[in-house]
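Quick note —
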Amino acid sequence: MGIYAPSDSVGRMAFVAATIIVAVGVMAAKVGGGSGEGASETDAPGSRPAGPALTAGDVVQSITTGGSSFDPAILTSFIPGTSFVPYQGSSIEADLVRYESPDSTCVSADATGGGVLAELRRGVTLPDGARIKRVTFLGSDADATHDIGIRLSRTTFNVPSAGAPTKGFTVIDSFSTTGAPGTTVLAGADNLGLVVGTTSLPAGGGIDHVLATLHVQLRNSSAANHRLCGVEIEYQAPVSSPQGSVFHPVTPYRAYDARLEMAPIDDGPLAAGPGRLILVKDGRDINTGAINQVDAIPATATAIAFTVTVASPTGSGFLFVGPGGATAITASTINWGPNTLGAIANSSIVELDGARQIRVFAGGSPGAATHFIIDVTGYYAPPDLPNMGN
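Predicted structure written out below.
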């Protein structure tokens, strides 16, 4: 009977090197049918490819799913059997047999339950936004009569902006051993596509926490011929945050007024030229220009919503409000003509640089220039949510 022994460092290195596992077709399981996506291939139970060759489900390029992109590298997370716990109410709720080296990550159900089916569970802990590709069972089934069942489930917990929280449960993949003695490695369906983590729903819909859980059902017979040594999770990390940025309104504040003392930033009328770099993170007194609010927007801000006001312009011209790293005019944000009197304003959104700065350029007819004011009304940043990858 073969037992997977993760404490064997040489075997373990070879084991991890073969990250891309040939998927085994979903067999009859004690735990019901799965719903894995994508084609799978079949091989003898416990088999692995000779090398890390790609299978049909693997694509060497970024994958985009649900608006998120994932790194093409297939990563592996090993979850030892000793980290699983009996499901509450199971016949082995407090009884597990643990093994010494070389099988130190393996567990069996204690025989006190009289050979009945018992279930172990473990939450999957991955980076926020990770995409689960495949699940592989590592252990031993030396019982020709009974199978070991493996299942991956998804629980969605939604916290709405109003009303009671809701949750949903879905089986993502379900497969089992065949009862043939010596089974040590068994892979489930390929390309499951389950993305775990926390996301903010649009239009005030609340917050979704997507959790993944592993379930293993095995017999607690006196022969201890069902062993769980671990489960491997193949996954892909997100290329960028799946959360994106959301709008955070603020009490409007003045960030810049060219008519007042703006030290250490330049002030006065702006004419054609290299533009003016404006720090917008702090609020200023509308009468004196002195800073009266430090870090009115956080360092995580990626863009601002603002109003730009042109005051006392000359000639015919325009202002372009761009990111702090902008080097040239690519559009106009507000325009004025030769007969423009007093002040005119326009609202827009602009990306920030890493120092929470924007750059303002002036253009137009020769001699066109103007004072201008920047008022901030909100900012965009990733939502402040906990990591719910598990």
